Amino acid sequence: MSAKANNNSDADLFANGIYEWAKKIRSGSLSFLQTTEACLRSVRSNPQLNAFEFIDEQLPLATAAYMDECLAQGIDLGPLMGLPVGIKDIMAVEGMPTGFGSNADMTDLALREGTVVKTLKASGAVILGKTKTVEFALGATGVNESRGTPWNPVDRQTHLMPGGSSSGSAVATSAGQVGFALGTDTGGSIRNPACMTGIVGHKTTTGFWPLDGIFSLSTTLDSVGPLCRTVEDAALLHQVFSGESVTPRKSVKGLRIGIVEDLFFDNLDSAVAADFERVAEVLEANGAQRIRVEFPEVHERTELFSAIVPSELIHSITPERFLKIREGVDTVTESRAAVGLETSAHAYLAALNRRTSLIHKANETFNDVDIWLSPTVPVLPLPVNEFVDEKVHQRALLASQNTQPGNLLDFCSVSIPMHKSGLPTGLQLMMPGGQDARLLSIAASIASLINAD
Questions:
Q1: Closest CA to 32 of 60, 74, 4, 2
Q2: Do 18-242 and 256-452 fold alike per CATH?
Q3: What is the pTM (predicted TM-score) of this model?
Q4: What residue segments make up the domains of the chain, in order of their start?
Q5: Active site residues
Q6: Which class does domain 18-242 fall in?
Q7: Quick one: residue 102, left, alpha or beta (phi over 0 = left, psi -120 to 50 = alpha)?
Q8: What is the pLDDT of residues 400-442, one digit of tens each?
């Protein structure tokens, strides 16, 4: 179930996932140090990709060498041992700066290393560095005027948008520079870039993975999760961080697929629509059933998101700081964040109350279906240099059209590649919060059919 990322990295050791890489290590054909050296070499030899904000080469190399010594002595910490990983630059890592994707001085907001990073270290993972993010993690295209926009590795000639806000994590993973990378998802910031770079992205149920040590864009909607190469990788990481094991579903026979035609099928590029229909037909041919679900309330996503997220972001960085730095902030991020200055307490609380009622109503639809299925992103990755054309830019901003509802409805969700050729397209699976293990089980079964087709 490897992703179909079209990357040209010098050493893509992770194309078939973490388990296959781990087997090579334990067979003696590869070492942790050789792996880390290959990853660092890929970063140095592909500066165009610009996936990392910070790397301290000596620490990863020393960690990898130590893990080799431990393994030689019979100490095996499991499949994440010695695995190079990337950490989104809104997460604290001891000894590494946290820049929040901004040029502003945020040192007084410095966070202490949180549970997720500590768990990775305890599992023996090698923290390669901090990956680039959209400023303050607010943006779906991946463009960051302040700190630079990573280059989507699916096309080395044209600078296509990588998706955001976890842009660097997606690029580094897709290019094989890390085994996986951590991202956050508030309105699609894991699923969007996963889709656009041709990999797997898991938006976990909010609260399943601890959020301490991570900058808060939205205390209501934030979640943390992985960008990785296979569904098996996502399942492994879910078990590491939540303790839940995932048993792959044997087939899709009898699977009730909910199709919400409201919003999710608006504005689709023809390639996206064709890929989705092909996959849906494959699932039906293998015994799944498409069921239409009426949920027009998804059209409220823009109003609710705008009332909740900017207000909570402004609270995180404080109004005084925002007013001081706003002239130097990425223009799209600034305009979206500024909405929080004008949102009344009444509008904010009303949005939270409305969200609660919609979560209940959305969950009721799962009495009749097992999952909601849709394209992850309605558009193909667009050239960054064409964003000067307002029509192109507005189309690029559709990147969060299909992902924001999942956050607002408190779903867990995963994006898997569904394209056979050409630019990446993604298939989004959504289920009620708390059902991540079942979601990944179904995703594994669907991914195997897509890859076999």
A1: 60
A2: yes
A3: 0.96
A4: 18-242, 256-452
A5: 88, 165, 189
A6: alpha beta
A7: beta
A8: 999 999 999 999 999 999 999 999 999 999 999 999 999 999 9
